[in-house]
Structures are given as structure tokens and as C-alpha cells.
Amino acid sequence: MTDTWVPDHILYLVKGRVFQLKRRKRTVTDATISGAKALIECLRDERVDTIFGYPGGALLPLYDELYDADIRHILVRHEQGAAHAADGYARATGKVGVCLATSGPGATNLVTGIANAYMDSIPVVAITGQVPTPLIGNDAFQEADITGITLPITKHNYLIKDVNDLPRIVKEAFFIASTGRPGPVLIDLPKDITTDELEFKYPETVHLRGYHPDINIDKDAVRRAASMMMQAERPIIYAGGGVIISNTSSELLKLAETINAPVTTTLLGIGAFPQSHPLSLGMLGMHGTRYANYAVQESDLLIAIGARFDDRVTGKIDAFAAQAKVIHIDIDPAEIGKNVRVDLPVIGDAREVLRLLLSYLREKQSKSGAWLEKIDAWKKEYPLQYQQSDTVIKPQYVIQEIHRACPDAIIVTEVGQNQMWAAQYFQYEQPRTFITSGGLGTMGYGFPAAMGAKVGCPDRTVIDIAGDGSFQMTSQELATVVKNDICVVVAILNNGYLGMVRQWQELFFDRRYSHTELTQSVDFVKLAEAYGAIGIRAEKPSEVPSAISEALAADRAVIIDFVVDPTENVFPMVPAGAAINEILEPEVTA
Hints:
single chain; 590 residues; alpha/beta; Rossmann fold; 3 domains; 6-stranded parallel β-sheet; 23 helices; 22 strands; 34% helix
């Protein structure tokens, strides 16, 4: 037993009033540790190897423990970067990403990243500092009700009020974040909890009365699904991000080959099915391939796996897959029938459902022959295409050249035209190689997410396909990647505009380009060099391959400024509110 001096009270001045923070009398024994130390031990037990964070007053006791901890802490330059980096780390590795921010503005700066992870079902644990418990609710310095703020955008959140609850809460947070339909969980940690002492013991199991992620799969429903698949003449598999989350890509491939069903994916499902496969249709929806959209509209059976039928996929709901019966396989019952009528729901983990389904299926070849021939004809008639140029760089060409140079790279994107071109013109063969903000469409996501992906997969080439608008939202993280030797490549498709907004203004607002021009806003080469990174510029098509080669050979973070055609648009395009086979596409001359 050791003697520890503990002050009887601490005085706080809040809005001109004095508050006395009484400290309960305690005896510290060799078996007790502080809440801050306990949190570090909890993270070790969860095998956390990296935290993306930014310190502040409410977190000083925790950061003092991090000083000697064997957990890597990456100091970002803005808390939003920490949240996106944790998200990118999680998507690339399949593990839970962890971010850390202080109270008040530190916590609120995480909100966009937390909302992004929530929309895309990404396992992240966000830990925020909070003012001491006696001051909560008194508008203390740097106080924010972060649990209230994030209630709609977290899978669950906690405000720790007793240090003895800390190990249990951390255990539950990681369990909730990573099981069932994954999502972000927030832990709000008052400063006095970090200094209070407890006898530490990390729980081995979790017992949550209202949360049971293990679902008993309805075998009869799976048998009926198998029967419907065998009888269908024009089946289509529609695969979403849930296939990647549940590590179901190999089962998806086997299912498609067994029933001879073409596969189309959502934006977040890209990589779930190899795009070089003859049954691949690429992405569907607003900027999907024409043949994928046509196939969905003419199918007689739509097999949705780990997808939520969002509006960018379905277009006009009443016209979506109107000829098809719909099987919906998903782990979240709340998604069934939310947007589109479902003929047969199958609730459960996609991997387990598909494994059971495959055991009920026999190889099918006879009924799909004419259907596959029709789809092949669409592929030949309506390929993805653009007008190449010898004088100006086309953004699609940049994507194709990046694929040629490093087809196995992890591609991360910002949001907008760059995102859609990266989805269309890079050929993805493996899951977790395409990382993007889907549901929230967060500009500024790509660069810090690429940083997180590279930290999680240090032996992989990681490239952020960026727009000049999106990149400037989080470009300060250049300091982070240089300081920490995180060698990511940023390929900026610099068209001098907020490109996707400009495209809509051109097509639907009579070319009234209201506040979307960004020309001459920044010299990205000088910006890179100012931070200690490498800057490269390409202004002619002939310079594109060498710029990419130089970037891939570098031993530091690199920005490539591709000065691209400012008038280029993303096509195909389905106008908002139209059926997905009502497609806009410009004429391309030979």
C-alpha cells in the first residue's frame, strides 16, 4: 500500500461563480490504477495499435499515459482528420479504427467524421474528453454535450460517470462497433474519471440485454431463396458494402457462377466482385454503367446482398426493377422494405447466409443463356467511354493510367466528379481496395482516409484520387503524413471548379455557374513543398505516365497536380428523380 496525497477539494471558476469539486477520500493500493491508465490497458486488450488524435486540457491525464504507452499515436492537424483517418484505417484493415479528441470544439470537430462512418457502417470508436463530472451542465470552459450531439449518428454512445464502469464500457464499445451492422461508438470521458483510481480488471465477455447481434438464420427462407434463384430466367445480383464488411466476396463469386447471375455493385460494394469477371456489370445507379442499369430494369429476380437501396441507386422508386421479384439479404432488419418492396427477406450475416444458400443450390446453366447474351450485347453497345485528347488531360485518362501503373493499389477518393471517375475507370479486383465516402458524401474525406489506410496497410500503395475543391478541405494533414513518414500519393484532378456542382449547373441550371469556380486558388506543387512533401505537375496528356511513375518511386508523400479539362462531365448520368434506365450520355465521336 502506498500513501498518495489527494487534495480535499479543487476550486473552479465558471461564469463568475466558484464551484468546489470535492474529491472523495480514497486509499491507493498497488492494485489500483488511474482511469487514464486503465483506458490504455483496455485499448491494449482490444489490440489497438494506432490512435489518431489531438490533445487538449480535458485529456491531459490520458496523454500523459500515452507518453509511455506502446500504442502508436498519430497527431493530426485537425480533429476531423482523426475521425476520417480512423475510418479509412477501419475500411482498409477490417479492424476497429480509434480516434481521440478533447472536450468542446475538439469533440464537435469529430462530428462530420462520425456521421460519415455511421452512414457507411464503419466500425470506429471515438473517445472524447469532457469537463469534470461536477461541472457538466454548467457551461464550463470547453464543455459540449457530445453524447447528445452524436446520438443520431452513433450506433451507441456513453458518458462515463464512474471510473469503475470504464473497463466494461470500453469492452462494450468495441463489441458494439464491430458486430452486427458495424458503426461508430463514442465514449465521453470526463477529466476526473481519468484521474480517479480503480482496481482494474478487463471483462472477458459482454452482456447487453438489448443487443443481440447473432441472428438465427431462417433456413426455410434460405431454401425459398434458392428455389427462386433456380427458377429465375433473368437474375441479377445487386451487391452492396455489406458484402465487403462481412468478408463475403468469395461466397459471392461462387454464388454468381453457380446460378449464372451477373453482378452489379453499389459504390460501396466496389471490389466485392472482380470487375474483370465476365459476369461483372460494374456499378449501377446515377453514374453506373448503362448495361448494369438496363439489366436491373429487365431482370425477373433481383438478389440484393448487403445493400440498402439508397436513392442514388434506385432513382425513381416506383420504376426500379419493376419486373423483378426481390430477395433482400441483410443483417439489419430495419433495412428490409425501407425503400423498396421485398418479396423475400433473409435476415442474417451475409457470409453465413450465402454459405447456407450455396449448400441448397445446384449448378444452373440452362435458363440464363439468352439473358447473358443480351447483357453481353449491351456491354458491347454501351461501353464506358470518353473523348480522348492530345492537347488537354482528360480525367478519365488519368484514372486509367494510374490503374495501368499500379492495378493493385488501394484507391481512396474525395467526393464529386473525381469519386465517380475513380469508380468507373479503375478496375477493382479485390475487396477493401476502393475506399470512399458513400452515404454522407463528405468532401475532404479522402486525404485523411488515405492516411489511415496507409497506416493500416503500410506495405500497400495507397492513392487518393482528389478534386481541387475537396483536397483543400483537409490539406493541412500534409504535415501529418510528412511528420510520420506516411507515403501516400494524392492525384488531384484539378479542373478549377467544384466539378460536380458545376456539372449540375450546366445541365439543369442553364449554365449559371454560381460560386463554383476555384481557378488559380492554390499552387499545389508549392503547397506540397512547403510541407516537405513532393509536388509534381502534369499539364499535357504526354506528361501523365511519367508523373505517375515518379510519384510511385518516391520515398515521401506526393501530390500530383493534374491540370485537367475543366469542361469534362461524368457520364453516364441519371437525372435526379428519373428511372435508372433514363440515361444522359453525350455523343462521343471516333
